[in-house]
């Protein structure tokens, strides 16, 4: 097993409050609930075979994805999403809490972004939010499992200062987290509020546009 430690790269989650908002400001991450299952399903079913392999470690058929989405336990885990203007999920991050071992608490993070929305910082923002949530829920270690060929995810992990262990074409990336503080708690609260507000605006805009469209034929006929 070959271990690469990027000790020169400071983990993003140990920076000060201002840095916690680093990354594109227009990417807003909202916490999802069981009410979002249908949108989650649409998101995951839109991933092609290559993306399913990268996200789930194997090319999973639709029925496995359906089962995965149906059984997500929102009371135990946390799922984050980034919505586009059509209220579709452009990106999804799943933070799954692993059983605690003494004082050590680990959470595993999995992420996917629709192909059409990549390269805009959505994956990084979802990771950043998962790291802050982990800190705020007493997680000491954030973990990502991915293929070594997944150069984009490897890049995000290295950028965050994760310690990476390689074996047989797969990589385990670990980030040791500092305990929660006022900044991390405030940062998460503000991010969530901004995302909820943004979602509400998008929903109203969509309703207004639908209403307008329903009057259009009348307007044209008149
Ligand atoms: C990995 C994934 C989530 C990234 O999402 P994204 O929204 O495009 O990511 P971001 O835009 O935040 O960041 C991409 C970063 O990788 C870099 N990047 C893009 N393609 C790259 C490549 N081929 N090699 C190395 N770096 C690459 C970008 O330049 C950017 O870096 P920067 O922030 O320093 O500028 C997305 O590609 C995806 O859903 N892939 C399929 C599923 C998957 O691989 N999940 C991860 C395993 S759990």
TrEMBL record:
InterPro entries: Acyl_CoA_acyltransferase, GNAT_dom
N-acetyltransferase domain sequence ranges: 27-181
CDD domains: NAT_SF
Listed Gene3D superfamilies: 3.40.630.30
SUPFAM superfamilies the UniProt entry points to: Acyl-CoA N-acyltransferases (Nat)
Descriptive protein name: GNAT family N-acetyltransferase
Protein's organism: Paraburkholderia translucens
